[in-house]
C-alpha cells in the first residue's frame, strides 16, 4: 500500500517477504506512557523468546523490576524488505 510518504519501488528492487513461526518479543510500556498520545516506554524489542510461554514468564519477571509498566507480547509473523531482482538478461 502506498502512502503519501512512501517511495515508489525502483525497477531493480522488489518486496521480499519472509514468514516464520515463533519469535515472540516483549515491549515495555511505562505507566506514564499508557495514556493515549504518549510515546512508548522502551526501545525496540531485541531479544526473541522461543515461545509465548517463555515471553510471558519473562514479562512476569520484568514486572518485578518495573511494577508501573505493562508489557506487550508481540509475535513476528513476517518481515518484508526490499531485495534485488535478478537480472533476467544476464541470466540468459
Describe the structure.
Helices cover 20% and strands 28% of the residues. The longest helix is centred in the middle third of the chain and has 14 residues, at 52-65. The chain has helices at 52-65, 88-91, and strands at residues 13-19, 24-29, 70-75, 78-84.
Primary descriptors:
elongated; two-stranded antiparallel ribbon; 2 helices; 92 residues; alpha+beta; 28% strand
Sequence stretches where pLDDT stays below 50 over 5 or more residues: 33-40
* Helix/strand structural class: alpha+beta
Number of strands: 4
Q: Level of helix content?
A: 10-25%
* Morphology: elongated
Radius of gyration: 19 Å
Summarize model confidence as the mean pLDDT: 74
Q: Please count the helical segments.
A: 2
In whole angstroms, the N-to-C terminal distance is: 33 Å
Largest sheet: 2 strands, antiparallel
Strand content: 25-35%
**Strands side by side in the biggest sheet:** 1-4
Encode the helix/strand succession as letters: EEHEEH
